[in-house]
Known about the structure:
Elements: E1 13-15, E2 28-30, H1 51-55, H2 66-75, E3 79-87, E4 93-101, E5 105-110, E6 116-121, E7 124-129, E8 134-139, H3 146-149, H4 155-158, E9 159-162, E10 169-175, E11 184-191, E12 199-207, E13 213-223, H5 237-242
Amino acid sequence: MRNQLNRGNERGSAMVQCSDPNRRSMSTLSLQKHKSIRAALALSLAAALPASALLAPAPVAAAQGDLDKAVAALRGISTMKADFVQTDRSGQTVRGVMTLKRPGKIRFEYEKGVPMLVVSNGKSMYMVDYEVNQVQRWPIENSPLGALLDPSRDVKRFGKLVPTSHPDVVSVEVRDTKRPEFGVITLIFARDAASPGGLRLTHWVALDSQNHRTTVRLANQRYGVAVADSAFTFRDPRRSSRRPG
């Protein structure tokens, strides 16, 4: 029997949430490999636990000006492609390729066998499930990923530096205390002179409102690559299912 989106917090699931609580019951997606895998990026990524807990003890105080550098690094990304590995709270992982184009556009193309797509066209974020022909949508600003995508989001205003275990690692926790339902995102950078702003975004970590943690790690980052706007469109499975042939 086909797995249902509303199945609940079973092992191997990742949460995708927006600020509308009526949509949350549809946001648990099973990550069962070698079957009809469902996966979605934790778009309400939250990172309430400190980065030092993720890296190592003996935290190192952030250098003066690192928050400005992190903001400059994000704003300095015009386009980027990277491989990603998404890990949920139970340790289940799924891989894919991330494509980003500022302002506001991103695409998470999952590995073969995962009938899911997460894409933003610059205004709205979409989670597309081709197995059950469903699409969910919410505004970029309602997701903590807005810290990465939304040009109107003031990362410096809502962000703070978090101590790390290494002087070459910069961790920024971004949260809007007036809108806790939007969640929290912690962005982790490594110092890299070849990256925009001198910092390379390596991963982000989440702990959503239901204590579901998701980590997205990036590798093979390529900056300034040519990316067409058509990369941020998608085939709507609802139309194909309603109009066969």
